[in-house]
Amino acid sequence: NLTDEKMDETKKKKKKCCGYPISIFFIVVNEFCERFSYYGMRAVLVLYFRYFLLWDDDLATSIYHAFVALCYLTPILGAIIADSWLGKFKTIIYLSIVYAIGQVTMAVSTIHDITDANRDGTPDNFTFHIALSMLGLVLIALGTGGIKPCVAAFGGDQFQEHQSRQLNTFFSVFYLCINAGSLLSTLITPVLRAQEYGIHTQQQCYPLAFGVPAALMVVSLVVFISGSGMYIKTDPEGNIMWSVCKCIGFAIKNRFRHRSSRYPKREHWMDWADEKYDKLLIAQIKMVLKVLFLYIPLPMFWTLFDQKGSRWTLQATTMSGDFGAFILQPDQMQTVNPILILTLVPIMDRLIFPLIQKCGLNFSPLKRMTVGMLFAAMAFVAAALVQIEIDKTLPNFPSSSESQLKVVNIYNKTLNSNRTSLRYLFLYSSADYMTLDHQNITVSLNTNPVITKAFSLIKGGRQTLIIPSNPTLMYLQEDVKSKPKEGKNAIRFVNGWTADLNITNLDSIEPSATSNYTLVSHGKRDFVLRHGEQWCEFSQKFGFGASYTFLIPSTVFSTDVCTLSKTEVEDMKPNSVHMALQIPQYFLITTGEVMFSVTGLQFSYSQAPKKQAGWLCTNAVGNIIVLIVAELGKLPKQWAEYVLFASLLVAVSIIFSIMAYFYTYIDPAEIEAQIRKEQGLEPEEKEKETLEMEEKDEGQKNDQEVKKNQDIRFVKIRLCWNMLIYTL
């Protein structure tokens, strides 16, 4: 009965630790685990698309941003479910179950051995893995987005009206856990991904990289359910969004009905709803619409910002991550962003902004946001400059109508070809690939007798003409025509000895034959060559993204002693542009984030306190723009796409600055107080005084004060959001 419910509620309020409800510790741990799960999965997602599912850069980028966009659209659904139907507690429970199922499904989809029947390390049924991963991502998006608007608000529900100080501290710790989860997961999951595993073949450990976030999500759910008996659970209060939509719809309908000139005009088109709806609601909708109109250009910022996890990560795969003391994985570069956030926020808040204010400059929130967009544009200009440097080191691959040829000569004499396009001397290897615009060639060697052989080259391909110890057996060998994936090195061996050779991790190589390519990671690698009881060992240090052909001479086992003097042919140079060159673009984009995102949230809640969904939607729309450009733009050079995005953002920032110039700042509290006064309601100032009295008299509440809590709660929420913005 009602009395028992009040007693249970009182018991929950008494369960405290250091002045805080015990229940909030479960919520904080839950949030840390959930954010670790989300950002850990997201950190390696684009590389999973690129190197496991073997999608190209554009498709991998498109699906990545489609997923992120969905994650920022589903909070609207979560808010509607929580406010109109289940309440925050049940919404978090049910959608967290969906979330955990999605993470587990995603982890299972990365196990290549499930469909690798021929045990070659590549899935035989990509459709199965794609379908499973897409199902997992949809469930994850529903889960993470659905609980996003509920968890922080549910934590706020655990505090009483007199605990504003503890409430502010809770939000500080809450968002510290978000940053901690993001930072740690972005550091750890790429390391897990770089491990090698496999029942039959050793591959990148995507199951572990996705499995750990899945386990953390299960832990998050268990921890949250464990605190169930301690939570204060509020009933659904009705969804404000539905009321807003009905009010706007009625205003439009009523305005259309009275479109005749005989009806007097009204100050604002929303005023046509005052015949049915409360003036306070109409005033709040006006504030929201005013801010939403200003939001129209904002998605372009997120279009650039969220490419840290896609284009910039793919860019890092073509760079060197050797920092001497440690090796940085391409997807670990994203950790620069949260590290800089934790550094720049206090510097901006305590030093830069106060200094600008002391100089007498009017650096208003909208001006900060404009400058933030310009910083993001500069970040993409920096990314374009880095990409140009990378392109200088990339091989010049043939077009679809061309062929490329290199010659490797392990015959013990210098040979000369009388082919016009090949007329030069070569010993061991020609200096670089020759680009030919025709496929049929005939090669003649000046041996005695002359050896002549015809070959047909592959259009759009790279091949090597291997001239073994017996020149009559010369043949073409197909080469790799793209950079080895994930920064690894592609190596192969040409057996110049007269018998079969066994080489570490390779099948037996017949005389004069060439092995298939094998991918090896950076660092020092040892190789052992064996033939029966005879063996030779050599070491080679590798960088990132190179391709080598090792020539084993015919004299390798000519005596009882190993006389290996192997020759290496560099088919593709290693990555020479260092990942450290990405730091300036991360610094610029993070500076832009501090000025744009943090200030934008503060502006939103100062001008329209009830508007969070609109801000999240700008992020979703920004990711959709990336998807469209990636699929439809198809620019031939990646640096050109970076410049395009930078140019678009500069144009948008100019438009936004013009809109901001004509924007008039308002005080929502003043407007609401004026409307309350006109309606004969208690002014907000008196409500604030009531709140202060409650804080002085801790723990003493009566039924009369509880009746006034509806408007006091609104004041509290605004106070919490201001503290939240400061924490960010």
TrEMBL record:
Its main location: membrane. InterPro entries: MFS_trans_sf, POT_fam, PTR2_symporter_CS. GO terms for cellular component: membrane. The chain crosses the membrane at residues 20-39, 59-80, 92-114, 126-147, 167-188, 208-232, 287-305, 369-388, 613-630, 642-666. Residues 682-705 are annotated as: Disordered. GO terms for molecular function: symporter activity. One of its GO terms (biological process) is oligopeptide transport. It is found in: Membrane. It is a multi-pass membrane protein. Keywords: Membrane, Peptide transport, Protein transport, Symport, Transmembrane, Transmembrane helix, Transport. It holds the Pfam family PTR2. SUPFAM superfamilies: MFS general substrate transporter. Belongs to the major facilitator superfamily. Proton-dependent oligopeptide transporter (POT/PTR) (TC 2.A.17) family. This is Solute carrier family 15 member 1a.
